[in-house]
Amino acid sequence: MAFYQPQPWRVDQTVPNPSAMNWIDSHCHLDALEFDLDRLEIRQAARQLGVVSCVIPAVERANFKAVRDLAHQLQDFYALGIHPLYTGKSQDGDLVFLREEIDRSIDDLRLVAVGEIGLDGWVQSLDWARQVHFYKEQLKLAHDFQLPVILHVRKSADALLKCLRATKVRGGIAHAFTGSLQQAEQFIELGFCLGFGGAVSFDRAHRLRGLLKALPLSAIVLETDAPDIPPKWLYVQAQARSQGQSQARNDSTQLLPIAQVVAEIKGVAMDELARVTSLNVRRVLARMHAQENGPLTPD
Fold this sequence. Notes:
The structure is a single chain. By secondary structure, the chain is α/β, with parallel strands linked by helices. It contains 11 helices and 8 strands. It has an 8-stranded parallel beta sheet with strand order 1-2-3-4-5-6-7-8. Helix 6 links the parallel strand 6 and strand 7. Helix 3 packs parallel to helix 4. The two termini are 29 Å apart. The relative contact order is 0.16.
């Protein structure tokens, strides 16, 4: 049986004890099959590095219970929603079930958002109209239950913004954001923070790094999107993969080296980045703030 082995990480060792700072991984699919053999070990390793909280978003009806149970087991947080990549296999009845699940869980302060929802303009085989239908219906749920949303944004920022203007929600996070500065400013005006993770670690990501540099720190949250979007030090080139080398798995321990990259780009100290980005997550996912102001529902 394979167990977790900490990956080499690139945090500048001259930074004073970054693991003593409090970090939040605002987007981590810790329920994914890739973690079945060592999920608890991974979470413990990340916690020892200072990752005090993770947000675990659902992607389809089949994993609603899994993310809820995992958030309680690990003292983390979760979101319920249907991801655009899963709309092809989802039924309208799943939207009814989602409403029922949110209603049943609304007093559970570990439920922090409706998500992961949104639109994907990259995968051409997806039915765009069906994506829009599921997105609009889930925005209505977020509006009705006064919850923020966690958005999947891939070549879809303008369409997402159009729907957000039609159905007001309590802001949230535009996860793995790669849009323009103008689009970013529109999300910020609607009460969103923008998620940055492993993609910004690549030297060739000039436009994304320029966007990150231009944004105020108050608009930024950190994420891994584990096990997806590995940072450059874990990424295996296509040629190497074709020769049998496996893609290294991303996990929440990588939040600190990702944070170091972000700190270098923004020109801020690591402790300031930890403080502000964690406050940002708690601001836009306001139910997390109950962790500081009172007890959560019993586990």
